[in-house]
Design a protein that fits this description.
This protein has 374 residues and is an alpha+beta fold. Helices cover 46% and strands 15% of the residues. It is built from 13 helices and nine strands. The longest helix has 21 residues, at 173-193. The radius of gyration is 23 Å and the shape is globular.
């Protein structure tokens, strides 16, 4: 798992070109100011900012320090995938903040200013990431902010995460994949039960009523793991049924589908909503909306797109398009941090222990949108 995340992070930090850049007079003047440009084959990198990091020894050294800080950060985080998203966003902001727009070449007379800016923000970034408190300050959910603000909650969550990861480490790769999907579902369920969904911008003092709920959640999960006595199969790998055909039921279903199709390498389920339901004594249909965040690039019409989002996509409109990956060819790709939303109706059957999902795929979806960048 760690190797996979580090590899993904490396791809984010230094995106390679699909082909060699055609160097013009302006490009060559910049290359002449980068001592390592030819030796490191920096023309193979399309991003102008990363070309500077590739060809300048001072920037290269700063990037190495940042890489070390990033690796140390990943080592202390229980859930590394949000850090990948956050790092990708920072790289985009770094370029824009230093005056680098898209793939536009850096002019020779802007070189010193751009280099100084990149060096400054990279050194600052490395210093921030070396601070263990950074991830508390950067919490991007209401639950995360509440937990970080309370040392006892933060300690309880850290201990729980450590116990969960130790259990998952005992499983074979396939079982571990399902366990990680269930682990992510726990967090989404927690935020729903504690009424914290969509409250990222609410002041902490107005969320105090949710603290007892978070305490109960952490205590319940910790007790559940303790009762397993080191056996991960007593915590993960069981068929889970929902008490009602509702949002929790849709989340159970979506998490299982994503785990079965190895979608976790490309997409993380961020939020789940139940929009409508039709229920009788033994069967139910629930229309749900699922929001997913892209963790690794994939083409808009590919096996990943069709199995993990339920559809191919029109890159120009950000909407689902008819056809399948076998019939439609699309070279456009979703970038990291892109957010996809789909709506779909799921079928459930009532069993002795609750409502079970009858679905094993997301396709076809009723509607969808792709937002948050290109």
């Amino acid at each position: 798992m760690r190797l996979m995340v580090l590899t993904m992070l490396a791809l984010l930090a230094l995106p390679a070109a699909s082909g060699f850049a055609q160097a013009g007079a302006s490009d060559r003047s910049i290359a002449d100011r980068l001592p390592l440009f030819d030796r490191n084959n920096c023309q193979a990198i399309r991003d102008p900012g990363n070309q500077l990091f590739c060809g300048d020894s001072e920037l290269s050294a700063a990037a190495e320090k940042l890489s070390t800080a990033v690796e140390a950060r990943l080592a202390r985080l229980p859930d590394r995938l949000p850090a990948i998203e956050e790092n990708a966003i920072w790289i985009r902001q770094r370029n824009l903040g230093c005056g680098i727009v898209g793939q536009s070449a850096i002019r020779d007379d802007d070189f010193d200013r751009v280099k100084a800016c990149l060096l400054k923000v990279t050194e600052e970034r490395a210093a921030i990431l070396r601070d263990p408190d950074f991830d508390c300050l950067a919490a991007d959910t209401a639950a995360g902010a509440l937990i970080c603000a309370d040392p006892s909650l933060a300690l309880a969550e850290t201990e729980l995460n450590g116990q969960v990861l130790a259990l998952i480490g005992k499983l074979d790769p396939t079982a571990a994949r399902f366990a990680f999907a269930e682990y992510g579902r726990w967090t989404r369920e927690r935020d729903r039960k504690c009424n914290l969904v969509g409250k990222e911008n609410v002041p902490l003092e107005e969320l105090g009523s949710a603290e007892d709920c978070l305490v109960d959640y952490l205590k319940r999960k910790t007790n559940e793991i303790a009762a397993a006595k080191g056996d991960p199969k007593k915590v993960f790998g069981r068929q889970v049924a929902a008490k009602e055909p509702d949002t929790d039921a849709v989340d159970f279903c979506a998490a299982r589908i994503h785990a079965a199709n190895s979608c976790g390498s490309f997409l993380r389920i961020n939020r789940v909503y139940a929009l409508d339901s039709q229920v009788n004594d033994q069967e139910a249909q629930v229309t749900g909306e699922i929001e997913m965040v892209v963790l690794a690039p994939f083409t808009t019409c590919s096996k990943v797109a069709s199995t993990c989002t339920g559809t191919c996509w029109d890159a120009s409109t950000g909407r689902p398009q008819p056809g399948t990956a076998d019939k439609v060819r699309a070279s456009a790709a979703f970038n990291v941090t892109r957010r996809l939303r789909i709506q779909r109706t799921f079928a459930f059957v009532k069993a002795a222990d609750g409502w079970r999902c009858r679905e094993d795929a997301l396709a076809p979806v009723s509607s969808g949108t792709a937002g948050g960048g290109s």
